[in-house]
Amino acid sequence: MTITMESAGQTMATPRAATVALGRAEARRLLHSPFYWGGALLATALGVVWAWTRMPTWVTFAENSGMSSLVLSVGLLMATHLAAGRDRRAGAEESTSAMPAGPARRALAMLVSVPVAMLTGAAVHLLSLLLLLPTWPVGEFDPWASAVVLVIPPIGAVIGVLVGRVLPGPAAGPLTVVALCALLIALLALPNYPLNYTGALWPVPEPPWEIGAPRPSGWHLIYLVGVLIALAAAVAWRAWPKASATVLVAAVACAGVSVERQTAETPTVISMDLVNQYTGPAVLSCQTHQQVRYCALPHFEGWIENWREAVEPVAAHLPSRAQRPTVRQIGNSYDLKPITPGIPEIVTSHSWGRIGGWATDSRTRMARDYAAASVGLYTGGFFHADCEASGQHRAAAGLWLLAQSMPNGVEQVRNGELRIPRVRYGQAELDAAVTLLDRPYDEVAGYLGEHWTELRDPSSTALAGLGVTLTPPAVPAAESQGEPRSEAGVCR
Predict the structure, then answer these.
(1) Would you give the DSSP letter of residue 54?
(2) Which of 389, 391, 404 is nearest to 439 (CA)?
């Protein structure tokens, strides 16, 4: 009996087709990895937590997103390391040797993690932004600084592939993470002067040296892309040796040039004239509401409504003829010169509480500053030492203003819990404020309106008619012309 067998007609898959099929399979396996999901969820949570207490700006949001993308890159590194070393652990070499795609092609297939990581970084970035709604970042949007979330996660994924092909052992992944963390900490510890090369090498772009100043974030993005391409070329070395070598050298050179350009575009000497180009009076956006002038930095106008909530309850109790101080936002530097000489002003920074107690704290701080400035006791914000206001009647008047402007202000002043900021005074001034609070509101408000100019004089006894018996101290003469702000001794 003769048996005839026919060929099934199937052909062996080509290496390229096998690589593509492996890439699809590795993408599916990566999306099921607990390290992938753990890194994505932790990165999203940290991005939201870091921005939860303060009103977001585009600079801080990009910085928080960049740091959270580092966390995501760690999860991707762990996942891709285990996947890349899979065919060399537990005696798997004999089984994988019969596959149509060899080790070089299997390494190429693992580069599918790059687009997966990019999409995941973008999703985490967008989700973190949506979870902060209804607040929206203010300031100038820098697309290049935000785009690092598309590059940092793939760098972690490719590092995991590269280490997994060389050191497939399970411990190599965590040890690589520890080594990279030590390297990043070393970059923070190394001195940056006179050239900030270490800052340029740090993965997350640094904030601008001044609010609104240009930053070399485009060059930083090119540097990160160069690092990513160099690592991918190292992974593809065995498959395409000559092309990978060429790409590797070009990518390293491009990254080096980008780092050099970053340092060159950061000024080494910063003068107030240079600072004023970005945060000076000429560039501020000013609005007037209820006779109070608010001046915000460019693109920060959305915060004026928050400032009004703090200031208008104080301004509402000022006499009609009293001068309303200006609210001015400043950057990282301040020359202590008011926008308009002779008109008092308070300053606020580019930080404001976003929600709950943090927002209440910011409003309280500004209300205290505004009350102090209204009676002439504002000491220039956070740039001066405390001065001595003991015996000055305007201290009692400032406390009375604060008590009227806060929901529980009267009780807080009586208990000594609500105080004028950055000035020193004692129980006598608190007792004087309580004396004013014990009198009818209309009586005190009318009296202040009649004696307001006199009250602002630190040596006056303007409140004697309301029963205040404080004895003002001797006030030294101002050392320079113009409205004095404060000194370490007696408040002028």
Answers:
(1) B
(2) 404
* CA–CA separation, 473 and 471 (whole Å): 6
Which of helix, strand or coil describes residue 200? Answer: helix
DSSP characters for 353-416?
Answer: B-SHHHHHHHHHHHHHHHHHHHTT----GGGS--EE-TT-HHHHHHHHHHHHHSTTHHHHHHTT
Q: Compute how many other C-beta atoms are within 10 angstroms of the C-beta atom of residue 269.
A: 5
Pair 470, 392: CB distance under 8 Å:
yes
Q: Is-cis flag, bond preceding 191, omega within 30?
A: no
| CA dist., res. 482 & res. 437, Å (int) | 33
Q: Mean pLDDT, to the nearest integer, of 337-361? A: 91
pLDDT in tens, 380-432: 655 566 888 889 999 999 999 999 998 888 888 888 888 888 888 889 999 99
**Bridge partner residues of 286 (DSSP):** 295
Contacts of residue 258, Cβ cutoff 8 Å, sequence gap at least 6: 219, 220, 222, 223, 226
Question: Considering just the CA atoms, what is the radius of gyration of the chain in Å?
Answer: 32
Cα 320 to Cα 129: distance, rounded to the nearest angstrom: 44
Q: Closest Cα to residue 219, out of 295, 148, 319, 135?
A: 148
Residues 6+ apart with CB under 8 A from 311: 292, 294, 327, 366, 367, 370
Contact in structure between 376 and 344 (CB atoms under 8 Å): yes
Q: Is 320 helix (H, G, I), strand (E, B) or coil?
A: coil
Beta bridge partners of 345: 326
Model-wide pTM > 0.90:
no
